[in-house]
Write a structure and sequence with these properties.
heterodimer; A: alpha+beta; 3 helices; about 35% strand; B: about 180 residues; alpha+beta; four-stranded antiparallel sheet; 4 helices
Chain lengths: ~160, ~180
C-alpha cells in the first residue's frame, strides 16, 4: 500500500517537473522572440524616419529647384544648397525640429563627381546607438552652367 | 499480484510521459508555424519601385558632355535608337567622334549608364535589371542585368521617350 502511494506520488512529481520544465522553456523562447521582434520594430521605425527626413530635405524651399516660380520635383539647386548650408548651420536648432539627429549630404555622380556637400549634421553627443542610411537619386541643377547632374541625396538618421 | 500492480503503474507512467511529449511536440510545431510567419512585405516593394522610378527620372534629365550635340541623356538615348534603326536598314557602321574617341551613340549611352549604375545601385548592394528598347523591336539597344535568376523583381520604373521613328522605353527594376 505504501509502495503504491509512493509510486503514485513519484509519478505526479515527475509529471509536474516535466510540465514546469516545458513552461520554462516556452517562457524563455517567448522572451527571446519578443526581444527580436522589438529590435525589428525599432529598426523599422528608424527606416521610416529616414524616409521622412529624406522627403522633407528634397522638398525644402531652401534647396528645391524652381524656374519662373514653378517648382521642379526631385531636384536640388547647387547654388541654393551652397547658401543653405550656412543658413542651416546658423539655425541648427530650428532644423533639428525637422530632421532630428542625423546627417544630410549631396554628392554628384555624373558628369561632375567632384561635387560633394554636407548640408546638415547634428549629433552633439557623438554617440550613436542605432543608425540607418538611405540614398535617393536626385538631380543637381547648376543654374550657372544650366546643367543637370545625376546626384545622390544621402540621409543618415541616428537613434 | 504485486508484480502485475508494479507493471500497471509503470505502464501508466509511460503513458503520461508519452502524452506530455506529444503535447510538447505539438506546441513546438504550432509555435513554429504561427510565430515565425513573416507578415506580408509592404514597405520594401514600395521603396524599390520608388527608387527605380526616381533613378530613371534623374538619369534622363542628366546633362552629358559625351557628344557636343546633346544636352541630356534623354536625347542621347533617343538618338541611340535612331542610329540603330538606320544601321539595321542600311547596314552601315555609323559612329561619331568626340575628342578623338569614336563610338556609336548606344556605346556612349551604355558607358555613361554603366558608370552611374556602378557608383549608385551596385555600391548600395542592390541588384537590378536595366533595359533600353523600342516597342516592336526584338532585343534591347543595351541592357544590364545583375539579378539572380530566381530573384523577385520589384515594380519597374518605366519611361517612354518619344523619338522620330517610335517610342524608346527606358526600364529599371530593382530585385530583392
Amino acid at each position: 500500500m505504501k509502495k503504491k502511494a509512493q509510486a503514485g506520488m513519484f509519478e505526479i512529481i515527475v509529471v509536474l517537473f516535466v510540465f514546469f520544465l516545458l513552461i520554462g522553456f516556452g517562457l524563455i523562447f517567448y522572451a527571446g522572440m519578443q526581444k527580436r521582434s522589438s529590435t525589428e520594430d525599432s529598426k523599422r521605425v528608424l527606416e521610416l524616419r529616414a524616409v521622412r527626413v529624406a522627403q522633407i530635405a528634397s522638398t525644402l524651399p531652401e534647396l528645391q529647384c524652381s524656374l519662373d516660380n514653378a517648382v521642379r520635383e526631385n531636384c536640388i539647386e547647387v547654388e541654393k544648397a551652397m547658401a543653405a548650408k550656412d543658413v542651416i548651420e546658423k539655425n541648427i536648432a530650428d532644423y533639428y525640429d525637422m530632421f532630428g539627429y542625423g546627417k544630410i549630404s549631396i554628392k554628384g555622380i555624373y558628369p561632375d563627381s567632384s561635387l560633394s556637400m554636407l548640408l546638415y549634421d547634428f549629433n552633439p553627443s557623438r554617440q550613436t546607438y542605432d543608425t540607418t542610411a538611405i540614398q535617393i537619386p536626385i538631380s543637381l541643377y547648376d543654374s550657372v552652367k544650366k546643367q543637370n547632374y545625376f546626384g545622390v541625396l544621402n540621409v543618415e538618421v541616428y537613434s | 499480484m504485486l508484480k502485475f500492480t508494479h507493471k500497471k503503474a509503470q505502464m501508466e507512467l509511460m503513458g503520461l510521459a508519452i502524452v506530455v511529449l506529444l503535447i510538447a511536440v505539438g506546441m513546438f510545431f504550432a509555435m513554429k508555424y504561427t510565430l515565425f510567419q513573416k507578415p506580408p512585405e509592404i514597405k520594401n516593394p514600395y521603396m524599390q519601385s520608388e527608387l527605380a522610378t526616381t533613378f530613371v527620372n534623374t538619369l534622363l534629365l542628366a546633362s552629358t558632355d559625351e557628344c557636343k550635340a546633346y544636352t541630356t541623356m534623354k536625347d542621347l538615348l533617343g538618338d541611340c535608337a535612331a542610329q540603330e534603326l538606320a544601321r539595321q536598314k542600311c547596314a552601315l557602321e555609323q559612329k561619331y567622334c568626340s575628342s578623338g574617341d569614336c563610338k556609336t551613340y548606344c556605346e556612349a549611352s551604355d558607358k555613361i549608364v554603366d558608370a552611374i549604375l556602378k557608383d549608385t545601385l551596385t555600391e548600395w548592394g542592390k541588384s537590378y535589371t536595366f533595359e533600353v528598347y523600342s516597342d516592336g523591336q526584338v532585343g534591347n539597344y543595351f541592357a544590364k542585368d545583375t539579378c539572380a535568376p530566381n530573384a523577385e523583381r520589384g515594380k519597374a520604373g518605366l519611361f517612354p521617350i518619344p523619338a522620330r521613328h517610335g517610342t524608346v522605353n527606358v526600364k529599371l527594376s530593382i530585385c530583392s
